[in-house]
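Incident log, structure service

09:12 report received: a user says their structure output differs between two submissions of the same chain.
09:20 pulled the input from the user's history:
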Amino acid sequence: MQNVIDNCDQKMKKCVQALENEFSMLRTGRASAQLFDKIKVDYYGAETPLSQVASISVPEARLVVIQPWDKTVLPAIEKAIQKSELGLNPNNDGKLIRVAFPPLTEDRRKELAKSAKATAENSRVAVRNVRRDAMEELKKLQKNGDISEDQQKEGEQKIQKLTDSAIAEIAKVAEAKEKEIMEI
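09:34 re-ran on a clean worker, output below:
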């Protein structure tokens, strides 16, 4: 029974972690190096993550500076950023690339907040699915005679507590991201 609960706990933590990762990729009005994590650059014929061909720094709240270790890759980095869905315009000065983050419009902030809410709801659904699977596993164990009915009820209560905790964490993460998005 304990391994069912531990497995459920791990899966729920992964749901929360996945939400945090998803939110780190969501553009807000502030510059963030994590936004560039999914960008791949054509580096000598191989799709290479941007972080492996350049250093990415955030010297100001609305500016990211990308300095490649090999200057010949500058045009490829610029093209990769333009092709990304971030909607950013990189400035190439021959040595490094500066990416200015324009302030988001009110409509765009509302749209991003709505998207964040939908993503958080998907995470809540994933947590509830994990709960359902764990509850079914406990019922099977009880049916097979591996655990008593009291142990099953106790396990279900523990799983419900884990679920409540994970959903509260998702709400906290979503609220913080929404606040960050709506910030001017």
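09:41 both user submissions now match this output. Likely a transient worker issue. Closing.
09:42 reviewer note: The beta strands are 40-43, 46-49, 54-60, 63-68, 90-92, 97-100. The longest helix spans residues 106-143.
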